[in-house]
Amino acid sequence: VIKIGQPEHSVITTCAYCGVGCAFKAEMRGEEVVRMVPWKDGKANRGHSCVKGRFAYGYATHQDRITKPMVRDKITDPWREVSWEEAIARVAGDFRRIQEQYGRTAVGGITSSRCTNEEAYLVQKLIRAGFGVNNVDTCARVCHSPTGYGLKTAFGESSGTQDFDSVENTDVILVIGANPPDAHPVFGSRMKKRIREGAKLIVVDPRRTDLVNSPHIKADYHLPLQPGTNVAVVTAMAHVIVTEGLVNEEFVRARCDWDEFQEWCEFVSQEVNSPEAMAQYTGVDPELIRGAARLYATGGNAAIYYGLGVTEHSQGSTTVMAIANLAMATGNMGRTGVGVNPLRGQNNVQGSCDMASFPHELTGYRHISDVETRTAFEKEWNCTLDPEPGLRIPNMLDAAIEGTFKAIYIEGEDILQSDPNTHHVSAGLAAMECVVVQDLFLNETARYAHVFLPGCTFLEKDGTFTNAERRIQMVTKVMTPKNGYADWEITQLIAQKLGLDWNYTDPSQIMDEIARLTPTFTGVSFEKIREHGSIQWPCNDDAPDGTPIMHVDEFVRGKGKFMLTEYIPTDERTGARFPLILTTGRILSQYNVGAQTRRTENTAWHPEDVLEINPFDAEHRGIKDGDWVTVRSRAGETALRAVITDRVATGVVYTTFHHPTTQANVITTDFSDWATNCPEFKVTAVEVARSNGP
Ligand code: SF4
Fold first, then answer.
1. Measured in angstroms, how far is the CA atom of residue 138 from the centroid of ligand 1?
2. Which of 422, 443, 397 is nearest to 638 (CA)?
3. Are 223 and 204 in contact (CB under 8 A)?
4. If you take atom 2 of ligand 1, which residue's CA is the nearest one?
5. What are 351-399's pLDDT values in tens digits?
6. pLDDT tens for residues 433-463?
7. Smallest CA separation from ligand 1 atom 4, residue
8. Strand, helix or coil at 80?
9. What is the 3 state secondary structure string of 174-214?
10. Ligand 1 proximity of 343 Cβ (cutoff 6 Å)
């Protein structure tokens, strides 16, 4: 006899929120999730979870789900439900017509971290093999694209260097621009445990996060830098390490390019790079930087963890390379307890990047211009590939505004809410003749769509996600897709309508193809992942069981590369009209733009975004706790409720971006990372004034 509310069976799957990648046992009663129980054998979570993965799955059955395809001729027309056949024919027909009318390069697509690896792979294959262009990009453009660029340049691979277990052997934890207790909670807890056991902690963050000072944790050093000055702080730390003779010369001689290292030493030793000289930009007491640098270099195994507070800057890629310099100079690479670890915000941001979602790379981060790589794909896909990199998301939007880009296929990404300069995004989308959105809900981007293809939640998917430690894990369907098709099947339907010979019957066949084409994946298969529980790539003949720690005997690129990381202040400046700097972050119970978590009970914990403002700045403006305020920048304005707190320093204000009413991207700037176009979300000059609300 089964009691009401008792599960009948259970399925092991992977959380679809942050990059920790917790494994869960979904306890089911028919098609209903009774509860999500953190899986004790999950390699990334070891039986732990946070409130997102455990409780915030109700969006899968929320009444807002769209389950039927819809089309309309103009974006001002009402939506019309149609058959899958009609919707797919409309997409294929419009894209072909547009290419004939405006040229081959007038179309493109966007994948996202909501996609499984197999889904992301198929989207980019459709764009490349079906339309003959490399105009494909991913949501990583607006988060960790500088990680890809910076780590590939320094070490030869676009990924974090360690597994999560490595933290157990760390003596010094350096956290830069990340807030793991809120954004990566399960790993954040593990980090805190290690600190309670005695590891030292350095936090580089403009805000006093819980890691800096909470009942059980106190950072040994908190460097409360001015937003936008990461390069100045990290280069100043390098100055101390080099000028005080704290370099691990034995490691550098054996593992890195010695000439480049010497050139770097000369550069960082200059007086302009000293903590004292940099203080005019960083606002940080030079003695704090000196102390932190000494601790990092001499405190034993030292590991760096960083997040979007590093990447979402005009010098995001530079900061990633500056961090890599620090790790190499001190020999903190290539063994457990050390390394450089980007904390990926989304469940499959690592995977979507691995799967060739960038306009210049094929799987495994190999450049599209490489003849040998391209030839292998052309043979497998039976097509001719364009050797030229395609357009990034902002360039697609620019081209649309200029009239040369007319159609886009977007799977699982709400670019109108996620991407910078909302006015630019809406102008680009409005200028297109065919916008196809494949998603769960009629999101903000869908306001500009001509075709809406209903997608699946992770509870309706089979496939794999890859977490922040390169761990590939199974996502297993627990309920029938409400829309009738898996996301990869929808992409395949479009490809078949275009006349492509695609006949996948199971996502495992897509992974088999990825493994055939990708040297770092040749040993990966669904069978093996199920057998091992998970696999960390590279997994191939050299590493048949996967690779928890990278760059052990030598860097993937051979010799580690030191780069000169000159601090160049952002063009976003404060002044009389906009005297404060707005920076952004996340909160534990919500996730990104909130499309999922806002449709669950988690919203009770965080019903609205607020603006944190220092007591001095608030008093100066007559603002009281709980007042509505207008936050105005050069780009636009928004309304938020004020919370007065000394977690932020004077001159800095802070908000989260989980609710669409916040419209944080209406006020952010157009500035972006010089190497990757990752937007500078973390630095916006603003003024704040009391208001009557929205
Ligand atoms: Fe784990 Fe992250 Fe999911 Fe929380 S959101 S359960 S930490 S994967």
1. 21
2. 422
3. yes
4. 18
5. 999 999 999 999 999 999 999 999 999 999 999 999 999 999 999 999 9
6. 999 999 999 999 999 999 999 999 999 999 9
7. 50
8. strand
9. EEECCCHHHHCHHHHHHHHHHHHCCCEEEEECCECCCCCEE
10. no
Q: If we measure between CA atoms, which residue out of 687, 672, 422 comes closest to residue 572? A: 672
Q: Is the peptide bond before 180 cis (omega within 30 degrees of 0)?
A: no
- Ligand 1 pocket: which of 15, 179, 187, 592 to mutate (most atoms within 8 A of CB): 15
Note whether 561 and 504 are within 8 A (CB): no
Instruction: Report how far residue 194's alpha carbon sits from residue 174's, in angstroms, rounded to the nearest whole number.
Output: 13
Provide the sign of the torsion angle of the four alpha carbons 477, 515, 139, 503, taken in this order.
negative
Q: Which two tokens stand for residue 663?
A: 């419209």
Cα separation, 298 vs 202, whole angstroms: 13
Distances (CA, A) of 125 to 117, 130, 519: 12, 7, 18
Mutate to test the pocket of ligand 1, among 37, 43, 50 (most ligand atoms within 8 A of CB): 50
Kindly state if the Cβ of 15 falls inside 6 Å of ligand 1. yes
Give the residue carrying structure tokens 């934890």.
173
Q: Which residues lie below 8 Å from residue 139, measured CB to CB, with a gap of 6+? A: 110, 111, 112, 113, 346, 349, 352, 413, 418
Other C-beta atoms within 10 Å of 558: how many?
11
Phi, psi of 218 (to 5 degrees): -140, 125
Q: Are 255 and 329 a contacting pair, CB within 8 Å? A: no
Query: What is residue 1's predicted lDDT score, i.e. its pLDDT?
Result: 47
- Tens of pLDDT, residues 190-200: 999 999 999 99
Residue 425 CB less than 6 A away from ligand 1 = no
Specify the residue for token string 């760059």: 551
What is the Rg, in whole angstroms, of the alpha carbon atoms belonging to the chain?
A: 24
Whether ligand 1 lies within 6 angstroms of the CB of 346 is answered as no
Which atom of ligand 1 has the smallest separation from the CA of 186?
Answer: 7
**Of all helices (H) and strands (E), which one includes residue 451?**
strand 451-454
* Gap between the Cα atoms of 49 and 57, Å rounded: 13
43, 48, 49: residue to mutate for ligand 1 pocket, most atoms within 8 A of CB = 49
**Which two tokens mark 190?**
């593990």
The CA dihedral of 83, 105, 346, 332, to the nearest 10 degrees, is: 160
Cβ–Cβ < 8 Å for 524, 537: yes
Ligand 1 within 6 A of CB of 18: yes
- CB of 184 closer than 8 Å to CB of 587: no
Could you tell me if 191 and 202 are in contact, meaning their C-beta atoms sit under 8 angstroms apart?
A: no
Q: CA nearest 390: which of 152, 107, 678?
A: 107
Number of helices and strands (H, E) in the chain?
A: 24, 28
